[in-house]
Amino acid sequence: MRNILRHHEDSRTVLRLLEHARYEVLPTATIEEKLATGVPTGVQLTVTASPTKGLDQTLAMSERLRAAGYDVVPHLAARMVSGRSELAEIVERLRAAGITDVFVPGGDAQAVGTYPDALALLEDLVDLGRPFRHVGIAGYPESHPTIHDDVTIQSMWDKRRFATHVVSNLTFDPKVIRTWLARMRNRGITMPLLLGVPGPVDRTKLLAMATKIGVGDSSKFLVKHKGLMARLTAPGGFTGERFLQQCAPALGAPAALVEGLHVYTFNQVAETEAWRQELMARLRES
Question: Taking the model in full, what pTM does it have?
Fold first, then answer.
């Protein structure tokens, strides 16, 4: 009986997280058409920032998606913003478009101005009157390739007064999630978490996407996610459903404060939405 109750509780946790999922997309030429035909406007979207394509492409696509009826979260990569003057212009531009949420990573680019990291830009957003309803920051369950784990935990602590939630990078290990969540909360980081998970991925399409986002961006991405290709595309390998079920006991604990999912779609948005809807339907019937 206890195992049956545990399974039911875990399934409810997974369903709740799927119902509060948002999709990350890359600003490519075809993504807007894919979204229009494959994803309802009730799904929140986040638009990444590419050092090779420039921040304006992220902002312009965010404006168009917002005009199409989506709730949009542009990535404001701190090192791609020249300074407070440009930041103020970006704030005005996004607010004029009706965009109320942003995600602020440091970014992979070399700093073009006065922001060496996300914290510096976050501090200026506060000085500008906290213009956004929600401000997300990055979390790293897996070790960052260039930053020690202790530093990434401390970084979230330092940003807690300027942000509203944490968005986790990808991991494929439920044990890592459990340990990282406990470490965050024991440190006193009480911001809600959106757990980063990959959507269903086709190997050929993932390789094509790596080409579209640029060789430099692709290599940096793969360095940050060692083994990503193999884990996502191996026959019988990683599946989001199994991963979520394995994580569910930790994610469902009230103290974990996990509010939803941040789904890395790799622009396979129709496939991701179909997977989410099918899984939610099965969980509601169980």
Answer: 0.89
